[in-house]
Target: Lipoprotein SmpA/OmlA domain-containing protein
Amino acid sequence: MKKLVFSLVVLLVLLGAKAVIGQDFKDQNLKHLVIGKTTLSEAAALLEAPPLRSSVGASGATGYTWQYIQSKASLWTGNVRSSSKQVILVFNTDGTFQRIFQMDGIQLSPEDLERLFSRPAAEHAHRQRNQGDLRAIAD
Model:
């Protein structure tokens, strides 16, 4: 009887597999981020997970990445299902949230997308262009 139970447990384990990268995070809470105010610790609390990695840009701003990838496979049916989501949040040198740099597998309302992603990106590009123009004038 013990061998039969053990065999059934092994069979069930072999029939399904799951792989995960990162920690699941509450992407629906991105809408609560406030530009120039939200700190990294507040963002991590809102998303209910720490960032997976970070990188510092030339300006000194830091991008923090939240990523979650999940794959489930059934050896019995051969089906594989995967889902993923990722967001990179940029924080100023003063430690406050600047903008969403990149987002995949996440849906935001058009208003939140404009407020957190599109408008700040356009303003950043405009500032970079103006700084380049000022350097050219100084030369």
Q: What stands out?
A: The CA atoms of residues 57 and 63 lie 8 Å apart.
